[in-house]
Design goal:
- By secondary structure, this protein is α/β, with parallel strands linked by helices.
- Helix content is about 45%, strand content about 10%.
- Helix 11 (about 210-225) links the parallel strand 5 and strand 6 (about 230-235).
- Helix 8 packs across helix 9 (about 160-165).
- GO terms for molecular function: uroporphyrinogen decarboxylase activity.
């Protein structure tokens, strides 16, 4: 069993497993060279390209897991929703979902009909190259997908999405329930093709109150993961006020923690039965190595009190990161520095 799987199972591996969110690409020159002339969503759905991008950071950094190269809006595109990634902005939807009629229209699409052929082939190609290194499949959580769909693109406060929960709870639950099934189907495609772990990303959950998260979000996220048959990690940004709820009643094997909360405090909140992932501050990657080293050692030390600890960033790798900084973090976690 790999160190990552041991940590998720609550067994103490000899060395702290480490991987990085957004490790596939962004900061790597070999990624930027490979992506020239290819739009983001097209790259995600080109099996040999998606596989190669997934493998690049494993070769360079010697991380303990690969994370499948994709985008959280890919399952929506596979469902026939018109979406594009605008450089410098993010996902943009041609037809936002803002009314009960919009919800009724989009939820007529059966999540079981997602054509996952390209995704499954990319996963199979990747797993064949990884050997004993596990592949993490992932999907966006229902709220984050809904926030994009309802706003029509990126937003800071996600006011329209949060408003729908209260203005039309029936439409909200229909949409969030459908998105939960979409996310689950995307995870199942990756699982069936050979992924060893799954992670559910809720990038925008931090805009929610604790009450709204518990009432309107957690049940749908739980449905996306429950019974998936693989170890699971649930991650959100800004979720400190409801971190215990991120366990999804014990469905999640590990909870990802962002950089805002000391990891030992997070461990006290999630309790002894849940592993944790995190939580290096991404901003520290720009610091001189001695400063970053001290920070990473502190995170590792705080993580020792958990059922299991997977070292990671508290969010994604910034594009301007020096890749050598990431390699050094891996070497430090593995006891090579």
């Amino acid at each position: 069993m790999s160190d990552l799987l041991r940590a998720l199972a609550g067994e103490a591996p000899e060395r702290t497993p480490v991987w990085f969110m957004r490790q596939a690409g962004r900061s790597l020159p070999e990624y930027r060279e490979l992506r020239v002339g290819t739009r983001m969503l097209d790259a995600c759905l080109t099996p040999d390209l998606a596989s190669e991008i997934t493998l690049q950071p494993v070769r360079r950094h010697k991380v303990d897991a690969a994370v499948f190269f994709s985008d959280i809006v890919i399952p929506l595109r596979l469902a026939g929703v018109e979406v594009e990634i605008e450089p410098g902005r993010g996902p943009v939807f041609a037809n936002p979902v803002r009314t009960a009629d919009d919800v009724a229209r989009i939820t007529q699409i059966d999540p079981a009909d997602l054509d996952g052929t390209a995704v499954a082939e990319a996963v199979r190609l990747t797993v064949a190259e990884l050997g004993d290194t596990p592949l993490i499949g992932f999907a966006g959580a229902p709220f984050t997908l809904a926030a994009y769909l309802i706003e029509g693109g990126p937003s800071k406060e996600h006011l329209r999405a949060r408003a729908m929960m209260h203005a039309d709870p029936e439409a909200w639950n229909a949409l969030a329930g459908w998105l939960s099934r979409i996310s689950r189907r995307f995870l199942e495609i990756q699982r069936d093709a050979g992924a060893s772990v799954v992670q559910l990303f809720d990038s925008w959950a931090g805009s929610l109150s604790t009450a709204d998260y518990r009432a309107h979000i957690a049940p749908h996220s739980k449905a996306a993961l429950e019974g998936i048959g693989l170890p699971s990690i649930h991650f959100g940004v800004g979720t400190g006020p409801f971190l215990a709820d991120m366990r999804l009643d014990g469905v999640a094997d590990a909870v990802g923690v962002d950089w805002r909360m000391p990891l030992d405090e997070a461990i006290r909140i999630v309790g002894p039965d849940t592993a944790v992932q995190g939580n290096i501050d991404p901003a520290m990657l720009q610091a001189p190595w001695p400063v970053l080293e001290a920070h990473v050692r502190d995170v590792i030390a705080r993580g020792r009190g958990a059922k299991g600890h997977i070292l990671n960033l508290g969010h994604g790798v910034p594009p301007e990161t020096d890749p050598d900084q990431l390699t050094r973090i891996v070497q430090l976690a593995h006891g090579e520095l």
